[in-house]
Each structure stands twice: as C-alpha cells, then as structure tokens.
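Help!! Second protein's tokens look totally different from the first
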Amino acid sequence: MCNANKEYKDRLFHFLFGREEHKDWTLSLYNAVRGSDYINAEEIRINTIDDVLYLGMHNDISFLIVGELNLFEQQSSFNPNMPLRMLQYTAKLYSKLVKQNHMNYYGSRLLELPVPKLVVFYNGSTDKPDEMTLNLRDSFPADADPDIDVRVRMININPDHSAALLEACRPLREYSWVIGKIREYNSEMSLVDAISKTIDEIPEDFLICDLLKAHKAEVSEMLETEYNQEEVLKIVAEDAERRGEKKLSELIKKLTPGSKEYEEVLNASHEKLEELYRKYGVSED
C-alpha cells in the first residue's frame, strides 16, 4: 500500500526509487550509475531527509551502501544551483549520521565518513547533454579561490539520451518512458488527461506497471502537483522578472518542486518571502 509522507507531497521518482519496499529498484539505479553489479538490496540503508526531521527541507533519495553516501535528485527543469542544495542536504545527512552513531567530532581521532556521491537525473524539455558536471565554484567570482567546492553529476534521462544508463536500469527506462509520454500527450490534451492516458497505456511487461496502475489516483496526484506547480511558478517567475522583482524570480529557481516552500511562495507574506530570501541566499544583486 502507498503510505505517502503527509509532511510533503511525494514525487513519482521518490515513489519508485526511494522506498524500502522498492530497494531492488534503488540498487538497480545505483548499479547503472556507478557501473557496479551489487546484488543484495538489503545492503542499502535509505536515509532520505524528510520534513519531519528538518522542516522545510527534503531530498528525493539518499542512501548508504559500500561506504558511500548517495544523494539522487530528479529535476524536470534545469537548476544550476544544485551544488548548493546538495551541499545543504549532505551537511544535514552527515549531522544526522554523527548523532545517530554517537560520533565525537571534537576528539583527536579522525572520523571515517561515507564518501558523498551526488547525482541529478534531469528530464526537462530544455535540451541538455547526456551528462554534465555542475560545480559550486561557478557561483563564486571567477578570480575567487574558494576553500570548498561541490561537484554534482547531472545525467539527462529523457528517452533520447543516456541510452546505456537507461538500458542498464529497467525501472529508470520505464520511468523515462512515462514522463516522455505525459509530455507528448500534454501537447494535445489537458495534463490530467495526459497522465491518465499514459498510466492506462503502460505496457504490461513494465516492472512498474502493476504498481502505478494499482495506485493510479495517488500517482496521478503526484504528477499533477509537480507539473502544475512547475508551470504556475514558471509563470510567476517570468512575471516577477518583467516587474523587475529579480529576487522572487531567483528564489523560485532555487526551490524544489513539491517542497513546502514551493507551495507557500505563491501566497507568501512579505515577511515569509524575506525569510526565504535569507534561507536561500537570495540578495538584491
């Protein structure tokens, strides 16, 4: 049964790859990304951040396996600020690990930490290469010498990209097909009808077929919320740009679709907006 987190609206990517009951698909995704061949899904320890622990912050998927801390995010619009967001997520996860394992980071012994691996799966409509690297240092002045950098691997998972990766992970290939079909049908019918038609037409031999059809109403709500929020806030951002409100436009670009702030920003008070500007480092510049 689908037990959606009540603190924030679930997303299809997390629904498929971020749950205990689907860890075999998580492992398949990990193996495809890392070029590995692990077979025991029970080695995966899912530790995704959710709103219950950190109000206003959650990531799509994070898990531990073979000494690595993997953070996987899905984005249906290009976001060059993912290194900053991944830095925030990683810091929260390390803090959580330190507390759970009673690790003393004030002591003289060097702590052994899982190696962070940061990946964004991109399936937006703007054409991007199969792979590219996003760097936190790009947010600093060109002549700066920062003491910290973050690298994020961005992989294009649209149906006509990253063929080897999609072939290596069958559930990811099927997810890509679903998103591609919704986008195709949405060009000729409403989003609601496009989602319904896509779910009805999922090939019966798809691994994700039974799951999505059994939870059609919930899956449809996930997709409608995500797509509608992105479209509405895209319009809000463009309108803000035209009015010269660059701070609001920049804030929207930094928010995660489906997040608490993503929903709140449409009706946010001046005080709430100022709070979000500070939280996400949005300045007058």
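Here's the second one for comparison:
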Amino acid sequence: MNNWQDERMVVPRIGPFGYALAALRGVVLGLVTYGGLLVFLLLRLIERPVFGLHRPVTPWITKAVCRAALFIMGFRYTRRGRPMQGQGAIVANHAGWIDIFSLNAADRVYFVSKDEVAGWAGIGILARATGTMFIARKPTEAKRQQEMMEERLRAGHRLLFFPEGTSTDTLHVLPFKTPLFQAFFTHGMDRVLQIQPVTVVYHAPKGRDPRWYGWWADMSFAAHLLQVLATPRQGAIEVIFHPPVPVDAFPGRKELAAYCETVIRTAHPLVDHARVSAQP
C-alpha cells in the first residue's frame, strides 16, 4: 500500500454553527434528492413500457437534481469541454461519493459500480433507480456482465466507470485496471464505440487540507458527508471532458486504458503527471 493511503486527514472540530449548517443543507439536500427520485419513478412508469432500455426523459431529472445538490452544498462548479455524442463510454478518475453529483451534473450518464453499492442505505435505491450497472468481482460473472454491458452500450447508454477500482484522496490517480475495457473490443463494438476520458478536479476550501474532498481507505461515509455539509465556504469542482477517441484506434484494452490514464492524469493540475502503466 502506498504511503498516502495510510495517512489520515486532520479534520477540525465542528462547532455549533457547523452542525446547524450541516443540518440545514442536509434537510434541503434530502428533500431535493428524494423529491426528485419520486418524480423520476413516476416518469419511469411511463418511460419504461414505452421505450424499454432507452431513457429519453429521466436522465434529465438526474442531471437537474445533481446540479441542484452541488448548489445546495455550496460548491463552485465548472465544466470544461463537451460531452460526446453518439454511442460510447466515459472513464474518469475517482475521488469519492461527490463524483456521483459532479459527473451526473455534467452529462446524462449511467455509472458502473461494484454490486455492494446496491445495498447501501439511502444510496442503493438512488443508484438502482437511475440505471447504475452493478458488477460483481467474480470470474464466474464476467461473461454475463460483459453481455449486459454490451446490451446497455448498444441501447445508447453512456456508461461511466472508474478504472482505478477505488476512490482516492483527490491528489492521486491510481493505475487503471483493464478488464472492463475488454467489453469495448467484442462483437464488433470497437468499430462503433468511442471512449471519452474525463478528469475531475477538486479544489479544497482555503485553509483546509488539500485532500478535503477525498474519500479513501476506511473513512466513514456518514462522517465525511457531515464534514462536507458543515464546511462554511466550499471549494470548487472542475470537470474536464477530453476529446473522445474511437476504440478501434487501439490494438487492445491495455493500450486504450493506458491512453485514458495518461490523458486524465496529465490534465489534473494537482497530481504527479508521471505516467503509470495500466494494470491487468
């Protein structure tokens, strides 16, 4: 394990004002998020039988709710570059749970996530409703999951996944793992798909630890959420969309993964830009 993963962040004690601010933001955030979920589910009652896998309406609800959530939490938010059009997938670096809001606010995407997230209290129902694709880390499930990914991609879903396989302290980009990239090279998918790398940058509030928004190792979700909600003056989030590339421009998954990692790492102003080879 790298040294940075062992380091703990010193978090200042939350005072009465911080708790009051966190409570206010939390209540409003909950109302907007789960109110939006109710509207979402009602629309799905019409959308699903009419369009099947296609979702022409409800992703707009997700995008609007996530933009509102970032505003409620007090973030300054900037999107650079343009989301791609047409069939394809998105890969991004992963800092933690705030990525879900940051990336959904930027584009209409569907996350690929580890299957245990489906059972997380409060979060699991949101992930399932918004079309998250859950994957199990079992060799016996690999073929079925690859088929499911192909089906989603052919339906026009822009799947978004985090090749690092875990979240970080926002100051590191870990070596990309390559197995999920293999789905882009089967059954002629490489001839029709594009991949778009996206760099997510978190700027900590003035005077706070640069890793303020990172969520790594054994950090508690509840404690980190409280920490963020109690921050009086938030920092900034920057989402950078890089030009998409055709999958068939690369001989295989390792070369594609290495390219995406390099692009994402190089555009991040806070990390070591030295290239690290993709992991199998």
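Reply: Different proteins will give different token patterns, so don't panic. The radius of gyration is 19 Å.
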